[in-house]
Design a protein that fits this description.
Elements lengths: L2 H11 L4 E5 L5 H8 L5 E4 L3 H15 L3 E6 H18 L3 E7 L15 H6 L4 E4 L3 H16 L5 E7 H5 L19 H11 L5 E4 L8 H12 L2 E4 L6 E3 L7 E2 L4 H8 L4 E5 L23 E6 L5 H12 L24 H11 L5 E5 L4 H9 L4 E5 L8 H11 L5 E6 H4 L5 H8 L3 E6 L5 H9 L7 H7 L8 H7 L2 E5 L3 H13 L4 E5 L2 E7 L31
Parallel strand pairs: 1-2, 1-3, 3-4, 4-6, 5-6, 7-8, 7-11, 8-10, 11-12, 13-14, 13-15, 15-16, 17-18
Antiparallel strand pairs: 9-14, 16-19, 17-19, 18-19
Length: 552
């Protein structure tokens, strides 16, 4: 047994069953070891940002750690942006980064880089294995670190010789440490704050998509407090049957109005809200200066215990239908395409328990009201603001939940960052439908420039925001990656295309100016893949689950 084989056996013995990869020469022995263990599902992504984004999406839907294979410092650097999003989402991701053999590092080889420095900049836990004999133990500790505190980024760096040299056996990751809890005195103080008229309880984490949301609603109803969530969260439930929770807005001006006059703001599973950026003449945080801020439970702490402790202090009111979003499927809209109509059409046509990955950027706010009227579904958002999140995150979500439809709302500018993920969707036959909002530019930058007080836009600035001259041909791009696509000109065309996408396995796509495109690939075959992932552990109400382990 060599170090690479001990690594793979350690991962499998520790419950890691999926590996998203973009390997290089220093990882070849790891690839060979994976070849001997078909129970590990290995998925190739054509860009490292697709690797890290897929691992993020997989964790969000399963709360299970996936491994990544990344090549040296430059490859890890390419994965950095979506690792940043994963870190903000508190996703557990285990990166396996190869490096030059330790005796080769004294030479200035072309790919030599600061592997430790680039890893530590985004990882909670980082280690370089010193020898082949230490790889198994290091890997077990890496898995444990990735699972700790509700999910962390762990990076294990393997000099190439530690992969091919002799090792003695595998190890098994210890359980994640028990998360910290606030004191009873802190819980009592938070309960007292919530009893004030107009007080707010702000929640995040599993409380937004599991039965903990019911508990949060019951206790806030009992004391008369408002229940809120941040705007960018890793996952939340929306649509019919979802617990009613106020969602913060993107713009800090809107959030200033939402939070104005609250006597106290109690945080459970989240941090103090802040503006996406600093803006001239506006504060960095939207909470009222007179509001008492109570930081009760950080995201990495025991959210379930904390909510139960609050309920014991405050009591639990009985919930009624008014506490839930009621079924209200809109009629199919007609006429010219608008973003609002697109949201209504998706809501009218999508089945129960769709997973929506939202990177619509400026379109999202217009689409959301319609989607709220649809059947119950889960939403994944761009937690770290680093664009290029949507397509790879959908890959991970579809691998995690092969029995659920995945719909990606994608901007044309942001979609270009990681469009290689379309190829992975086609190769893995993932049931993903992608809607591209093709406004031919980075519309968010136009809006941000105005928010910064810069209103005079000349030729150079305009060329920094537009993606025209030539325009992007998303139909050709999708088909070039093996995915069926079409351009939509009106709502009748969108309705027909989206209905077809929902009726058949994906992937597929749509787009256009003032329109969208739907992408769909070859239909999946009913094959069984070794190591297929469980669907959405402890997931939202109504999730059908993954009963057979079949490949999507």
């Amino acid at each position: 047994m060599n170090g690479a084989e001990s690594l793979v056996q350690t991962l499998l013995a520790s419950g890691v069953r999926v590996c998203f990869a973009n390997p290089g020469t220093s990882e070849m022995h790891f690839v060979a070891a994976l070849d001997g263990h078909p129970e590990m599902r290995c998925i190739l992504c054509l860009f490292e940002g697709g690797v890290s984004g897929a691992a993020d999406g997989y964790y969000r839907m399963t709360e299970e750690v996936a491994a990544t294979i990344l090549h040296l410092a430059p490859g890890f650097g390419n994965a950095f942006a979506n690792l940043h999003n994963a870190r903000k989402a508190q996703s557990g991701v285990l990166n396996i980064m190869g490096d030059h053999a330790d005796y080769h590092l004294r030479f200035e080889a072309p790919l030599k880089g600061d592997t430790l420095g680039v890893a530590q900049a985004v990882s909670h836990w980082t280690r370089i294995s010193a020898s082949a004999g230490k790889v198994a133990g290091d890997a077990a500790e890496a898995v444990q670190a990735a699972r700790a505190k509700g999910g962390q980024i762990a990076t294990l760096i393997l000099p190439a010789n530690t992969a091919w040299e002799k090792a003695s056996g595998h190890a098994v990751a210890a359980p994640a440490p028990v998360p910290q809890r606030p004191s009873q005195a802190e819980v009592a103080a938070a309960a007292k704050a919530l009893r004030q008229p107009g007080a707010i309880l702000m929640i995040d984490g599993p409380a937004l998509w599991s039965d903990l949301g019911l508990l949060a609603r019951r206790l806030t109803k009992a004391c008369g407090a408002r229940l809120m969530q941040p705007y960018f969260v890793s996952r939340f439930r929306r649509g019919a049957g979802a617990v009613k929770i106020e969602r913060m807005a993107y713009r800090i001006e809107d959030n200033l109005r939402l939070l104005a006059g609250a006597p106290s703001l109690v945080l459970c599973g989240t941090a103090r809200p802040a503006g996406f950026f600093a803006y001239p003449g506006l504060p960095s945080t939207p909470d009222d200066p007179d509001t008492r801020l109570v930081e009760l439970c950080a995201r990495e702490m025991d959210i379930a215990w904390t909510l139960q402790a609050l309920a014991e202090e405050l009591g639990e009111a009985k919930l009624t239908p008014d506490d839930f979003v009621q079924p209200d499927r809109p009629a199919l809209p007609e006429g010219p395409v608008t973003m609002a109509k697109v949201g209504e059409a998706i809501a009218a046509l999508m089945p129960e328990d769709v997973v929506i990955v939202d990177e619509g950027i400026t379109a999202s706010a217009h689409v959301a009201p319609g989607l709220q009227r649809g059947p119950g579904h889960d939403v994944l958002t761009i937690t770290g603001g680093s664009i290029g999140f949507g397509l790879p995150n959908a890959v991970g979500a579809a691998v995690a939940c092969p029995n659920r439809k995945v719909v990606v709302l994608e901007g044309d500018g942001s979609g270009m960052y990681t469009l290689q993920s379309l190829w992975t969707m086609a190769r893995e036959r993932l049931d993903v439908t992608t809607v591209v909002f093709a406004n031919r530019g980075y519309q968010i930058l136009r809006e941000e420039m105005a928010a910064m007080g810069v209103n005079a836009v000349g030729r150079n600035a305009q060329r920094m925001f537009d993606v025209e001259g030539p325009s992007l041909d998303w139909v050709a791009l999708a088909r070039g990656h093996g995915v069926e696509a079409r351009r939509i000109a009106d709502m009748a065309g969108f309705n027909a295309a989206f209905a077809e996408a929902m009726a058949q396995p994906g992937p597929r796509l749509e787009t256009g100016r003032q329109v969208l495109r739907l992408i769909r690939g070859a239909p999946p075959t009913a094959i069984r893949q070794p190591g297929s992932a469980p669907c959405c552990r402890a997931a939202s109400p109504g999730c059908r689950g993954n009963s057979g382990g079949a490949s999507p």
